[in-house]
Amino acid sequence: MATPQRTYRFTFGPWNISTGADPFGPPARNEVAWAEKIRSYKKLGFDGVQFHDDDVVPADLDGPAIQKGVAEVRKILDGEGLFCEFIAPRLWEHPKTIDGAYTSNSAAERKYAIERSKRAVDIANAVGCRDIVLWLAREGTYIREAKDPIASAQRILDAVNALLEHDPHIRILGEMKPNEPMDQAYLPTPGHFLALCYRTADPSRSGVLIESAHSILAGLDPSDDMAYALWHRKLWSVHLNDQNGLKYDQDKAFGSVDLRRAFNTVWVLERGGYDGCVGLDVKAMRTTKAAEQTKHLANSRAMFLHLVEVARGLDADKVEAYRAERDYEGLEMYVLQKLMGK
Ligand code: 3MF
Ligand code: MG
Question: Does position 3 have pLDDT exceeding 90, yes or no?
Fold first, then answer.
């Protein structure tokens, strides 16, 4: 069992520094200015930024305005020594995406969603990154009868193909989530999207971003989901965080709920030769004071690095010996002791 020693690159999106607003209450902290968020990355030990399309420029600008706006953002990133990992079209806030985007029952709205996604590809090109992340937030239903589920799968495929064909270099990464905001999402897990990847116009440019909390919400183990995508050579990004059981999407700090589950995630990424960025998708608690509103990011990064140390400190021969003896009680205690620093 080889343990490749590698240096990880850490990223997060500006939405990870948030006001604490939730469906039941207004902001609990002031919105931090975009420029100030960008200035915090290096201080927190991060190397790159993840953006929604409208984190870079307002949605729906024309071509020249996109180029001009993105050039300014690129200059700021360069000045900070940051790179952009991916662009994700925000297809869940605009009035035209209310009934889904690619799977809307309205042909005009489906067209808007694809046009907007193509603009996101143009933004990615201009900012110098080649990955497009699709979190298909509203592709699904509140009631089963609302949409045709078979046509919907085809519409998602058509949209992915339209983007792959729009640009010969970009890659599409599906970030699947089983529910919230929808009652039931189409393609609810990475496994579903992986199957779709092989039917796209270019499977070699179709893959996944896996978020820990999304796997947990689907009743799956994030490390198994990630291992399966690694086996397909299609795990191109991750959103590490944690989740306390089956409830609303919590985006808790990585490792804060289940240390062993977090360890298994890190172990799989280490052993599986994962070479993408270590992306976070974490929220500070609503009760967090403004002065501490980035602690959850620094803490998640620190937890990841601690667990890399634990993973590298495991004696591979010992693990194999336990496996050979089918002594899983012994193996379990070995891992638990390592996690407790013994
Ligand atoms: C929701 C998410 C999203 C995505 C983001 C980038 C707002 O559960 O995980 O965060 O990560 O849109 O794809
Ligand atoms: Mg996410």
Answer: no
Q: What angle do CA 298, 281, 237 make, to 5 degrees?
A: 105
| Ligand 1 centroid, distance to 63 Cα (angstroms) | 26
**Residue 235 above 80 pLDDT?**
yes
- Please give all residues whose beta carbon lies within 6 A of any atom in ligand 1, as ranges: 15, 88, 133, 135, 175, 177, 211, 239, 249, 281
181: cis peptide before it, omega within 30°?
Answer: yes
Residues annotated catalytic, as ranges: 52, 55
Q: Decide: residue 8, CB within 10 A, 0-12 exposed, 13-18 middle, 19+ buried.
A: middle
Which ligand 1 atom sits closest to the C-alpha of 133?
Answer: 13
d(CA 269, CA 212): 13
Q: pTM (2 decimals)? A: 0.97
Kindly report the protein residue whose alpha carbon is nearest to atom 5 of ligand 1. Answer: 135
Instruction: Check whether 2 has a pLDDT greater than 90.
Output: no
